[in-house]
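INTERNAL AUDIT FORM
Audit reference: QA-55
Scope: verify that the stored structure record matches its stored sequence.
Auditor: D.O.
Record contents follow.
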Amino acid sequence: MTLRVGQRVPDFTLPDIEKRDRSLSEFVGQGKVAIAFFPFAFSGPCDREMCAFRDGSAAFKAMNAQVIGVSVDSVFTLNVFANTYGIEFPLLSDFNKKVIRLYGVLQDQWVSLGYKGVAKRAIFVVDDKRALRYKWVTETPAEEPPYDQVTAALAKLR
């Protein structure tokens, strides 16, 4: 599935680091959301990306925006990851790759390690009606998102 800007994104439910089911609709009900798909916890670029979003949390809060991270890591790995880096925004486990397929960001082959089925690095900015307002996807796992564009996309939403 290829989601386009302006289109309504599918709702989903995934477990967080405390093994609680969390739905996109829950976060959208609180304001704007940036869904940050990332390949693996504890892999250089992913660490930098999640820490960049952690460091921008005050700006996101001021815009009534929420970041949620989604990867194929287990809830146990994501829990250690969050505690290691002091990440307080939700990290969700898509261990079964349901949501990354649904959003069209499945990276079948991941670099040269032979891993199959991780999330591409991607950002989806969603408004309070679950409409996609900004989308960025890369085929290059080491490439980090354009943080200024993500912040600008969130700031544009009322």
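Auditor finding: record pair retrieved intact. Residues 41 and 81 are 6 Å apart (CA to CA).
Action required: none
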